[in-house]
Design brief:
alpha/beta, 6 strands, globular
Length: about 150
Amino acid sequence: RYKIVAQKETCFESTFTEDAEILIAAYGTAARIAKKAVVELRKQGIAAGLFRPITLWPFPSAQLASCAPQAKLVLTVEMSCGQMVEDVRLAMNGRIPVEFYGRTGGVVPSWREIVDKALALQKEIKIEKTLSCLVDITRTPVVKGKNAL
């Protein structure tokens, strides 16, 4: 039954993932903030993208794994203690590092905090800035799945 639900009901959104070297995975309110962080990182020449699972169960593992094959890092941003980060790690299957940035107690992370964390991680894994990731804010995100709008 799970396989049937996973095939028919899994839904997600991906934004700027085609060339992303840093992939930010976030859901809910954190995803809205992470989207702004992705735009700001791209303005700075960092090829960043966003993967936003719309359905958390079943988690869109296959879609996440294939979303940005060139990614060198996934940063999971949550307003929790890390309920999604393990799903992301399982989806990446050890291929690339998965880092966690979380806030609890109703504290909302700012886009600047997410940018700072991504830049610190970028330095750690030596991702170079590139001119090919200029932001086109008129692009609409890719939303896939049965319940996609």
